[in-house]
Write a structure and sequence with these properties.
The complex is a heterodimer. By secondary structure, chain A is an all-alpha fold. Chain A has 19 helices and two strands. Chain A has a two-stranded antiparallel ribbon. In chain A, helix 7 packs parallel to helix 9, helix 7 runs antiparallel to helix 11 and helix 8 runs antiparallel to helix 9. By secondary structure, chain B is of the alpha/beta class. In chain B, the strands form two sheets. In chain B, strands 4-5-3-6-7-8 form a six-stranded mixed beta sheet, with helices on both faces. In chain B, strands 1-2 form a two-stranded antiparallel sheet.
Chain lengths: ~500, ~350
C-alpha cells in the first residue's frame, strides 16, 4: 500500500454527461396525496395522520392484537365447546382438545396392550426349550460314549489288568457322571409335572440301572468272567433298559417339539395382536396428528398475522402513550435519531393547528349565516358594523392560527427538511420539494391555506425509516419494564440515561 | 484531546461530518490508544447506500442475533413490500421519463394502479404476484431497467421481482436473504458487541451514510479504535439519493478524504472496503467504465481487476495524512453471506494485528 503510485484523478461526474436521475414520482408531477397512495393504507393510518384516520382503524387494529383474544382459538372448529363438570371444576373441551384427548387415550390404551403383549412374549420366550434340546444332545452323546467304553472293555479288556481296568473305569465314570448331571439339569428345567415324572421314571431310572449293570460288567471282565459279561450286555434285560433310557429321551424331545409348536403359535398370535394395536393406533392417531399439525400451522399463520398487524401499529401506539413516548424519545436520543421523533411531534402539532383552523372555518361559516338572519331587518350600515364586531374575534383567531400553521410548516422545512437544517432528516429531496412548493404557493397567495395533508407522506416516510429504531426500542429494557410495570418513573429513567 | 469544532458546511455548501481538532497536536488526540482496552470500537463509515447496514446485518447474522429470528424478520414485511412498490413505481415513472412505452395493455393498467392506488396491503393478494411479474417482464420496463443509471432504483430490484410469488402472499415471512437484500435507510447510530478472544469485545457501530446523518459520526470519533470505510463499486454511474445532481463516486471520495485524513484517525487502523463487487462485475459487462474516468484505459474497461485497481488508486490518492501501512483495502459482496463472513474475518484479523502492533 505504501508503494501506491499516483493516478491522475481526471474523473468526470455523471452530472457532466447527459444524465438526469429521477426519483419516484418526480416526473409524474403527482401531488403529495396521490403519491401517498403507494404506501399501505393500513400503514398510512397507523403511522401517519392520527387526526384523519386514527379512530376507526386504530380501534380495529387494536382489537386484532387484543391480548385477551390471542389465547383463543382462531377458527370456528376450535371454538365449538363441550363442557364437562368434574370434581376439580368445569372443563371446557373444544373439538381440537377432544381430538387431542382421543389421540392420547388411544395412544395410552395401545401402549398398555403392547406392554401386556410384550410381557406375554417375554414369558413365552423365557421357556428353556433350547437349553433342554441342547442338553439332550449332549446326554445322547455321553450315553453313547460311555456305552461304547463298556462294550469295548467287555470284548477287548484283559483280566486282572488293573491299569487297563482303572483307565476304562475312570473314563466311564466321568462320562456317566457328566451325563447324570445333565439329566438332573434337564429334570429341573422341565416345567411340566407329567413329563418330569415320565422323564424321571424312564431315562433317569434307566441311567442309574444301566450304570449299575455296566459297573458290574466291567468288574466281571476284570475278574476274568468275560463270557458272562458279554452275555450280560447282550441280554434282553440290558437292551430293555437301554431302550427305556432312549425312549425317555425321545418322549422328552417330542414334548419339547410340541411345546415349541405351541410357542410358535403364541408368537404368531402376539405379533398379530401387536400389528392390530399398531394399525388401530395409527388409524386413529395419524389423522389426529395430521389434523393437529395442520391446525398448528394455520394457528401459526394466525399468530404471524396478528404479530404482523401488531407490529404495524406499534409505533403509533408508542406515540400515543405518554409514558412510552417519553421512553421512545430517550431511546431516539440514545441512538442519535431524535430529529425524526421531533419531526413527528412537530407534524402532529401542525395537524392540531389544522384541526383548529378547520373548526374556526366552520364556525365562521355558521356564524355568517346566523348573522345574516339576525341582521335582515336592520339597516345596511348598522348590520355591517355589527357583523364586523361579531366576526372579528373569530377571524382574528383564524388568521393567527393560519399564521401559526405557516410558522410551524416553515420551521419543519428549515429545521428538518432543508439539508442545511439543524435537525435535517434523511429523506428524498422530492418530498422536500413538495413541501417547499406548498409553502411557496401559500406565500404567493396561490392557495389560501396550507393543506392539512401536506406532511402526510413525509410522516409516513419518517415512520418507515424509524421502524428499525422502534424495533430496537421494543427490545430495550426500558420498554419491557414499561410494558410490565404500569407506574414507571420516566424522569428517573431520564436521569439514569447512560450516554450512548 | 483538543476541543472539537464541527463545521456543518464548507464553502461549497457541502456537509462536513468531520471533527477538527483545534489543538496543534499532530496526532490529533487519544483516539488510537486502545491496546489495553477490553473493548475495540470499530466504526462502519461510508456514503449512503455503500452497504454498511448490509454488512452490519450479516455480522449480526454470523453471531446469531437480529434477523436470525423469525420474529425480527416479520417486522420487516412492510419494508420488503414497500421496496417492491418503490421499485415498481420508479420503473413505471422511468418509462415515462425516458419515453419508453410499456408494451402490453394489461401491464399499462397495472402501471396505472401502481402509481395511483396500489399499497403494501394489496400485495398480500397472490394475484399481484403475476401482475407485477408480468409488468417486470414487459419489454418497456426491461428497457427502462437497462437504463437504471438514469434514475434511482434499489440494487435488489431484480431479486425482489423474481421472488414475488413468495412476497405476494398473506403468509409471507421474509427470509434472511430477503432482509439482507432489502434497502432501508439507516438513521442514527446502532451498535453490536461480540467476543473476539483474549477477553476482548469488538463493538461494531453502524451509522447512516446520507449527508444529514454524517454529522452524527462525530460522537464516536474520539473513542474509535478502527474504521471500516465502505464504498460501492457499482455506483460509478449513479448520482446521490439526497442530491440528484451529485455524482456518487465524487461524494464517496470526498467523504473518504475527510475521514481518512482526520487527525483523530492518524493511528487508527483503516480498512477500505470496495463493496458490491458482484453488481460491479455485472455492470461493467454492459456499461462503459472509462466513460466516467477519463484517466482510465478504455481497453481495460471490461476487466474488473483493472477497474478495481484504478478505483483503489483513486481512493488511496486521497490519503495525505494517514500512514499507509495501517490501511488495508479489500473487495466485498455484502449480500453474499460467505464472502461477507470471510472478508469480515480478515478485517477483524487486520484490526487485531494492528492493535497488537501498537
Amino acid at each position: 500500500m505504501n508503494n501506491t503510485t499516483s493516478t491522475s484523478s481526471q474523473i468526470g461526474s455523471p452530472s457532466d454527461k447527459p444524465h438526469s436521475p429521477i426519483t419516484s414520482g418526480s416526473h409524474l408531477n403527482l401531488p403529495p396525496n396521490q403519491i401517498s397512495t403507494q404506501v399501505s393504507n393500513k400503514k398510512v393510518v397507523t403511522i401517519a395522520s392520527p387526526t384523519t384516520t386514527k379512530p376507526t382503524v386504530t380501534q380495529s387494529q387494536v382489537n386484532l392484537v387484543n391480548p385477551s383474544e390471542s389465547g383463543r382459538s382462531g377458527s370456528s372448529f376450535s371454538q365449538s365447546k363441550i363442557t364437562l363438570r368434574t370434581c376439580c371444576g368445569v372443563v371446557e373441551l373444544t373439538s381440537m382438545k377432544l381430538a387431542c384427548l382421543l389421540g392420547m387415550m388411544v395412544t395410552v390404551v395401545g401402549l398398555v396392550v403392547l406392554a401386556a403383549v410384550a410381557i406375554a412374549a417375554f414369558i413365552t420366550a423365557s421357556s428353556k426349550s433350547t437349553d433342554i434340546l441342547i442338553a439332550v444332545g449332549k446326554v445322547t452323546s455321553l450315553f453313547e460314549s460311555s456305552n461304547s467304553l463298556v462294550l469295548k472293555y467287555t470284548f477287548v479288556g484283559a483280566a486282572a489288568d488293573l491299569s487297563m481296568y482303572n483307565s476304562y473305569q475312570f473314563n466311564y465314570k466321568n462320562s456317566t457322571q457328566e451325563m447324570k448331571t445333565l439329566l438332573q439339569t434337564i429334570l429341573r428345567n422341565l416345567d411340566d409335572a407329567s413329563i418330569q415324572k415320565t422323564f424321571n421314571s424312564t431315562s433317569i431310572e434307566a441311567s442309574n440301572t444301566l450304570d449299575s449293570l455296566n459297573s458290574q460288567t466291567m468288574i466281571m471282565v476284570f475278574q476274568d468272567q468275560k463270557a458272562d459279561a458279554q452275555a450280560k450286555i447282550s441280554s434282553d434285560s440290558y437292551n430293555t433298559i437301554l431302550k427305556t433310557f432312549e425312549g425317555g429321551l425321545d418322549q422328552l424331545v417330542s414334548f419339547v417339539q410340541t411345546k415349541e409348536k405351541e410357542k410358535d403359535t403364541q408368537v404368531l398370535a402376539i405379533t398379530l395382536v401387536q400389528l392390530v394395536v399398531i394399525v388401530v393406533s395409527l388409524f386413529v392417531i395419524l389423522p389426529i396428528i395430521v389434523f393437529v399439525f395442520t391446525y398448528a400451522i394455520n394457528r401459526d399463520s394466525l399468530y404471524l398475522d396478528k404479530i404482523r398487524r401488531a407490529n404495524a401499529i406499534m409505533l403509533m401506539d408508542t406515540m400515543e402513550d405518554d409514558g412510552l413516548r417519553a421512553l421512545f424519545k430517550i431511546h431516539c436520543e440514545k441512538e442519535k435519531s431524535v430529529e425524526n421523533y421531533l419531526l413527528l411531534e412537530k407534524i402532529q402539532y401542525f395537524r392540531s393547528l389544522c384541526e383548529r383552523s378547520l373548526d374556526l372555518q366552520m364556525r365562521l361559516f355558521g356564524d355568517n349565516n346566523v348573522l345574516s338572519d339576525i341582521s335582515s331587518d336592520i339597516s345596511g350600515d348598522s348590520a355591517q358594523s355589527s357583523k364586523k364586531k361579531k366576526e372579528s374575534p373569530l377571524e382574528k383567531e383564524y388568521a393567527e392560527v393560519e399564521a401559526k400553521k405557516y410558522e410551524v410548516a416553515f420551521e419543519i422545512f428549515t429545521e428538518f427538511l432543508e439539508v442545511t437544517g439543524d435537525m435535517a432528516v434523511n429523506i428524498s429531496h422530492v418530498l422536500v420539494d413538495a413541501v417547499k412548493d406548498k409553502l411557496d404557493k401559500f406565500n404567493d397567495k396561490q392557495i389560501e391555506t396550507l393543506p392539512e395533508d401536506m406532511f402526510n407522506i413525509l410522516e409516513k416516510e419518517t415512520c418507515l425509516v424509524m421502524m428499525d429504531t422502534h424495533h430496537r426500542f421494543k427490545q430495550s429494557l426500558a420498554f419491557q419494564r414499561e410494558m410490565k410495570i404500569d407506574k414507571i418513573k420516566v424522569d428517573k429513567l431520564k436521569k439514569k440515561k447512560v450516554d450512548f | 484531546m483538543g476541543n472539537i469544532v464541527v463545521s456543518p458546511h464548507d464553502k461549497e455548501g457541502q456537509h462536513h461530518m468531520m471533527a477538527t481538532p483545534t489543538s496543534n497536536n499532530p496526532n490529533g488526540g487519544s483516539a488510537a490508544t486502545a491496546k489495553n482496552k477490553s473493548e475495540i470500537t470499530v466504526l462502519l463509515l461510508g456514503a449512503g447506500e455503500s452497504g454498511k447496514s448490509t454488512l452490519f446485518k450479516q455480522v449480526q447474522f454470523f453471531h446469531g442475533v437480529g434477523i436470525t429470528h423469525d420474529q425480527e424478520r416479520i417486522e420487516l414485511i412492510e419494508i420488503v413490500r414497500l421496496n417492491v412498490l418503490e421499485n415498481a413505481k420508479n420503473l413505471v415513472a422511468a418509462t415515462q421519463h425516458l419515453n419508453i412505452p410499456i408494451e402490453q395493455p394489461e401491464n399499462r393498467e397495472t402501471a396505472k394502479l401502481i402509481i395511483n392506488s396500489l399499497n403494501t396491503n394489496d400485495l398480500e393478494d397472490p394475484s399481484w404476484s403475476k401482475r407485477l411479474y408480468s409488468l417486470w417482464k414487459d419489454a418497456g420496463i426491461q428497457k427502462a431497467y437497462e437504463n437504471r443509471e438514469k434514475f434511482q432504483l434499489y440494487d435488489s430490484t431484480e431479486y425482489l421481482f423474481e421472488n414475488l410469488d413468495r412476497i405476494c402472499s398473506d403468509k409471507y415471512v421474509p427470509t434472511v436473504v430477503d432482509v439482507i437484500r432489502t434497502r432501508t435507510k439507516t438513521i442514527g447510530i446502532t451498535d453490536m458487541k461480540f467476543d473476539v478472544g483474549d477477553g476482548k469485545q469488538l463493538r461494531l457501530v453502524d451509522v447512516g451514510g446520507q449527508r444529514n446523518e454524517r454529522r452524527k459520526w462525530i460522537h464516536f470519533f474520539n473513542t474509535v479504535d478502527a474504521v471500516v470505510f465502505l464504498t460501492s463499486l457499482s455506483e460509478f454511474d449513479l448520482n446521490l439519493y439526497e442530491d440528484n445532481g451529485y455524482w456518487r463516486v465524487k461524494e464517496s471520495l470526498r467523504v473518504f478524504n475527510e475521514v481518512v485524513n482526520n487527525a483523530l484517525f492518524y493511528k487508527v487502523p483503516f480498512v477500505l472496503l470496495f463493496n458490491k463487487r458482484d453488481l460491479f462485475e455485472k455492470k461493467i459487462a454492459t456499461k462503459s467504465f472509462s466513460k466516467y474516468f477519463s484517466g482510465f484505459n478504455e481497453a481495460e474497461e471490461k476487466n474488473p481487476v483493472a477497474c478495481i485497481e484504478y478505483m483503489t488508486k483513486l481512493f488511496l490518492n486521497e490519503i495525505t495524512e494517514h500512514p499507509l501501512d495501517t490501511v488495508s483495502v479489500k473487495t466485498l459482496s455484502a449480500i453474499d453471506h460467505d464472502n461477507s463472513k470471510q472478508v469480515f474475518e480478515e478485517v477483524k484479523q487486520f484490526i487485531m494485528t494492528q492493535q497488537h502492533r501498537e
